Input
Amino acid sequence: MTEKITHSTAKQRRRHRRIVTTATALTMVLSACGTSDGSTGGSDGTDAAITVVATTTMLGDVAKNVVGDAGTVVVLLPVGVDPHEYQASSREVALIQTADLVIANGLGLEDGMADILASAAQDGANILEIAPASTPLPFGEDGLDPHVWFDPIRMAEGSRMIAASLETIDPGSGWTERAETYAAQLMVADAEVISLLETLAPDDRRLVTNHDSLGYFANRYSFDVIGVVVPGGSTLSNPSSSALSELAHIVATEGVPAIFAETTDSAALAEAVASEVGSEVIVVNLYSGSLGEPGSEADTLIGMLLTNARLIAEALG
Amino acid sequence: MDWLSEPFELAFQQRALIGGSLAAIALALIGTWVVIRGMSFLGDALVHGVIPGIALAILLDFSVLLGAALAAAVMIGGINLVHRQTKFAEDTGIGLLFVGMLGLGVIIISRTDSYSGSLTSILFGDALGVTRGDIIVLAVLAAITLGGSLVLYRPFLVLAFNEQKAEILGLRPRLTDGVLLVLITMTIVGSFQTVGTLLVFGMLVGPPATAALLTRRVPEMMATAAVIGVGSVVVGLIASYHLDTSGSATIAVVPIGLFFVVLTIRSMIETLQHRREAPAA
Output
C-alpha cells in the first residue's frame, strides 16, 4: 500500500542546491513550489493569493506588515516557545514546501528545524534567511549572532528584503509600499527606544543577561554586555560553578542593579546569581525568543522592542 | 483515499516514508536481538553515550561517525570492565557509563564559546528532514543489519539463549557478542543522526517487543517487528500531517501505543481462555 502511494503521487520537482541566504540570490528559486492543484489545499483554501510562512513570531509580525491583505501569513512557532527547540509537523513542512515564500531567521536559531529547512531548500522551497543577510555581528569565537530582531534598523532592512522577494513572485501588489511604511514605523520605534533609554548615563549602560541574546541591542544603543549566565547559544549548555560565582562577583562589584532573563526560558540560574549578590539585584524578564501573548503590550515586534526598552530603562535607572 | 495519500504527495514526505521505513527495518532486526537478550537499557544508553564523541569530532573537525564509534568503544569497554571486575549486574555499569558519558558531552558542549546550534542539529535529526544522502546511509545500514542477521543468525541465536552452549559449539561467544555490539552501535548512530533520537528509541524496542508478544520464533519475530516498524512510520506520518504534531515524535509514539494495545488484547484473550478451561480443570 505504501509503495502505491509513493508511486502514484511522485512528482517531478526541480531541485535547488543551496539555501538562499542573500537578497541578491533571490532572483532564482520558485517554480516547483506553490503546487496549484486543489487536492493539496487542505483546510487553507488560498488559491491565487500569496502564501508566506514565517518561522518565528517576530518575523511573522514583520511579514504580516509587508503582506497586508495581499496574501496569507502562517507563523510556525507558537508564542512563548524557544525557537531553538521547536520541531515541525508533517503538515507544517508541507506548508514550507508549497508556500510562495518562507521567511526564516537562520544562523542556527531554528535548531530543531535545521534538517527540515535544509532539505526543503534542496527540494526547491523558496527560503529567505534574514539574519545572514543583515550584516550579522560576530558571536563567540567564530560564529555569527542570530538575534538580529533586537535591532529595528536591521529589521527595517529585513522588511525590504521580504518585499523585494515578494516583488519577484507577484510584481506590483504593493509589497514595497507596505514595507516602506513599516520600515518607517520601525524607525519611529527606534527613536522612541532611544528616548526611553535617555535617562541612562553611560555608566548605567551595562547588561548582565541570561543568554547572550542582547548583542544587537547593546550595539545599537551603546550598551556593554558585561556578563552572561548561560554560556554559548545552545540550550544544551550549562554554566560552571566558577563561572557563576565570577558572574556574581562582577554583578556585586560593578553594582549592576538587574539581571535580564527571558520569557521563553527558565530564570532559575539568573535568580540564583541575583540572590547570591543580595536583595537589591532584581531579575527582569525580557521578551526575547518570542513575542508576547496576543493582547499583551509585546504582541508585535515594535511593541516588544518598546516594552524591552522600558523594562531595561526602569531596571537600570 | 485523499486522506491517506495527501500526507505522501510531496517529496519530503516520500523521503520521510522511505528513510523512516529503512531505519525501522534496520532497528527492527537489531532490536529483536536487543529485546531477546535484555539489552534495551544498553541501547538507550548508547544513544546518549556517543554525544561526547560527536561533540569532540565537531570541535576538532574530524568525522562525526568516527567520534561516535570511539565514544561507543569507550562506553562498551567501560561497561565490560565494571561487569567483569565487580559482582554488579550489567545495568549498574551501563548506568555509570551512561551518565558519565552524557555529562562529559554537556561539559564539552558548554566549554565551547561559539554558537553550538549546529551541534544540536547534528545530534538530533528529524524524519521530516531526511535527504537523499541520508536515504543511502540508511539503505546501507538496513542491508548490513539484514546481512549480519542472516549470516550470524545461528551464533546470535545460541548466544541469546545459552552462552555456555555457544562456547561448547565453538561459536566464540565473546567475538559474537562484540560483533552484535558493533552492529547495534552502528544502527543506532546511523539512524539517530538521520531520523532523530526519539524515533530510534521508539523503533529499537517498540516493534520487537510487540512482535515478541505475538510470536516466539526469532525469524518470525524479526519479520513481524519490521512490518510493525514500517506500519508505524506510515501511521505516524499520516497522523503528524492530519493532527499537526511533530513528525519524529509522532512516529515514535505509535509502536509504543501498539505494544500496550496488543498487550491488553493478549491478556484479555488469556483471561477468557483461562475461564473456559477453569471448569474442566
Remarks:
- The CA atoms of residues 261 and 285 of chain A lie 5 Å apart.
- The first strand of chain A starts at residue 50 and ends at 54.
- Chain A has ten helices and ten strands.
- Confidence is low (pLDDT under 50) at residues 1-47 of chain A.
